Amino acid sequence: VGDTIKIRVPIRGYPVPKASWFKEDRELREGRRVDITGNNRHSTLIIDDAKKTDEGQYSITLENELGTDTIILPVSIVEPPDAPNKPEVVNIEKHEIDLVWSEPLYDGGSPITGYIVEKCDLETGLWRHALTTTTPYCTIACLDEHHDLQFRVMAENQFGNSKPSEPTEIVQTKEPIPVIDYDDLYDRTFMGSMIDVNSIKGDVLGKYIICEELGRGAFGVVYRAIERATGKNWAAKFIHCRPFEKDLVRREIEIMSHLHHKKLLQLHEAFDQPGEMVMILELLSGGELFDRLVEQDYDLTEEDCITYMKQVCQGVQHMHQQNSIHLDLKPENVMCVTKDSKDVKIIDFGLAQKLEEGKAIKVLFGTAEFCAPEIINFLPVSFATDMWSLGVVSYVLLSGYSPFAGDNDHETFFNINAAHYDYNDDVWENVSLEAKDFINKLLISDKK
Questions:
Q1: Which residues contact 321 (CB under 8 A, 6 or more apart)?
Q2: Which residues are annotated as a binding site for ATP?
Q3: Most buried among 100, 169, 260, 408, using CB within 10 Å?
Q4: Do 164 and 120 contact (CB within 8 A), yes or no?
Q5: Which residue among the candidates 107, 272, 328, 386 is catalytic per the annotation?
Q6: Are 310 and 418 in the same domain?
Q7: Which range of residues forms the domain containing residue 10?
Q8: Among candidate residues 205, 201, 241, the one with its CA nearest the CA of residue 221
Q9: Domain annotation covers residue 337
Q10: Is residue 30 in some structural domain?
Q11: What does the pLDDT average to over 333-361?
C-alpha cells in the first residue's frame, strides 16, 4: 500500500499487435494514478500510490488482424497488519505480569511475524518498548513493585508494524495474594485482651507483618496481619481519622476491651499512629451473615434463624450486663466465624455506648431500617433500643425483607414510629406463631 505498481510485459507479433490492459473485466485507461506506456517490444502498466482496492486480477490482451492473445496477472497488495485486540492481564506479581491477546483479524496480506509489547509508567506517561515475541502472549519481567502501568501491543509482518492496540486497564505490580484457607487461622480459644486506651502507642509495623487486604469500608481497610512474636494471624483494621475523630475510636476500643464473650468480636491490641488508628482483631473468615442470606436466596429454615438469633441474643445479653448497648445491630454486623460454620459473632462497635446511671444518652445515628423509634425521635436510648433492632433482624432473617422499609428514609421513619408492619406475605405462612410472638414482643414502641 502506497507503493507504485509496475507491470512490464514483453510483446511480439506481426503485424504489430495492439495492447489493452484490464482489471477484472474493466478496461484500464490512463488517468490520475494510471499510466500505460509501450512500444513494439513491450507494454507497461503503472499505478501510483497503490491502494488495497487495486488488488485483483489484471490482464493484458494483444490483438492484430490475425488474432488475439491474453495473459492474466494476479496482483496482491500487502500492508502492515491491523492492531491486535486489547491485551488482557491474566496474572500480576511483585515484579512481573502476564499478558495475552488475540491475533489481528487482518494480517495485511502477509503472515504475522511477531508482536511488539510496549509499557507506559503512568508517572511519566511515556510509552517504551518492553519486549518482542512471536506468540500472542508473554511475561514481562523486571518491573518495579507498586508501579501503576499500562501495556499495549503492535503486530508486525514483513511490510511493517500495525497501529498500537487499545491499552490494558491500569495495573499495579504487587505481591500475589497467597492461597490461604482462612478458616484454619481462626482461634476459638481467644477471648480478648484488656487495653488501656490511655497507653496506646504507634508502630504497628514493628510488631506485625501486614499482608493482603481482606476488605474495606467507608472508614478504613482491613488486612491480614501476622504477629511477629507469635506467628499468629489477626485482622488489622486501619481506620483513617483526623485527630479529633480519634476519641470516637478510643471509645470503641474502651468498650471492646471490656466485652469478653464468645459471641462478640474480640480485640487483641490497638495502635495510635499519625492520621490513623489501628485495631488488631481476631480473624473471622465466614463473611457477613447478610452475605450468607443473599447466597442462599433467603432460603433459611426457621431452625436456622433460631440458631443465629440465639447467638446474637447471647452476645447482646453480655453487652447489656456490662452496661453497654450496640445501637447498630443488623445482619451486616453479624459475622460468621468460618465459611461452613453456623457460629456467629456480633461485630462493629463503632456506635456502641456505655450507659451510666443518671445520665441520659441521645443519639442520631444508625441504619434507618433497624433504628428504634427513640433514635429517630432523639429520645434517650436504653437496652430496649437494641431489643427493637433484634426484632427487626429476626423479621429479616425469617422473611428476607425489612418490616419498615419505605421508598425513602422519611417513609421508613413514619413506619417505625407507627410500628407499622405485618405478616401478610406468603413467606409467613410457614413461620410459627412462637416466632411471630417473639418479634411482636421486641417491636414495642411504648417502652414504659
A1: none
A2: 237
A3: 260
A4: no
A5: 328
A6: yes
A7: 5-75
A8: 241
A9: yes
A10: yes
A11: 94
Residues 437 and 306 in one domain: yes
Specify the pLDDT at position 212: 86
Identify whether residues 319 and 430 lie together within a single domain: yes
What would the mean pLDDT of 142-160 be, rounded to a whole number?
90
Which residues, listed in sequence order, are joined to residue 6 by a DSSP beta bridge?
A: 46
Q: Find where cell 447467638 sits.
A: 311
Rounded to an integer, the average pLDDT of 35-57 is 93
For the chain, what's the residue count? 448
What would the DSSP string read from start to end of 348-371? --TT-EE-BTTB------S-GGG-
Q: Does residue 325 share a domain with residue 229?
A: no
Cell 443518671 -> residue:
358
C-alpha 101/C-alpha 361 separation (Å) is: 61
Q: How far is CA 37 from the centre of its chain?
A: 66
Which residues does the annotation place in the binding site? 237, 333, 348
**Which amino acid type is present at position 411?**
E
> Given pLDDT bands bounded at 50, 70 and 90, which one contains residue 200?
very high
Instruction: Answer yes or no: is pLDDT of 317 > 90.
Output: yes
Question: Any catalytic annotation for residue 328?
Answer: yes
User: pLDDT tens-digit profile of 102-134?
Assistant: 999 999 989 999 999 999 988 888 999 999 999
CA dihedral 376, 382, 387, 392 (to 10 degrees): 10
227 pLDDT above the threshold of 90: yes
Intra-chain end-to-end CA distance of the chain, in Å:
90
